[in-house]
Amino acid sequence: MERALLVYTTFPDAGTALKVGEELVRLRLAACVNVLPGMLSVYAWKGAVEHGAEAAAILKSREGLAEALGAALKARHPYETPIILHLPVTGADPDTAAWIMAETQGPPIG
Known about the structure:
- With 110 residues, this protein is α+β, with helices and mostly antiparallel strands.
- It is built from three helices and four strands, in the order E-H-E-E-H-E-H.
- It has one domain: Alpha-Beta Plaits (2-Layer Sandwich).
């Protein structure tokens, strides 16, 4: 059976994360997108150390959609270089895995 996949990314704010997340769920590239607002980040960018407020997002999908999901996320993302990390799932509750598989196949949702 195909394995579940988690994708981690960040957005400038929760509203943007929710908007992009809804598009990806409607396209059935993700079964769910968890948005964690209020994250503070410190990061290296173009030779400087930056600080900023962001929202983290965890997308629940399947390994077979990794490339398509990554491309769709990148196309909708406001950052010049968005963080897109694919985190393979080595174990999952069978009911959870079945739900992810069921919700990430078939035609887009209304």
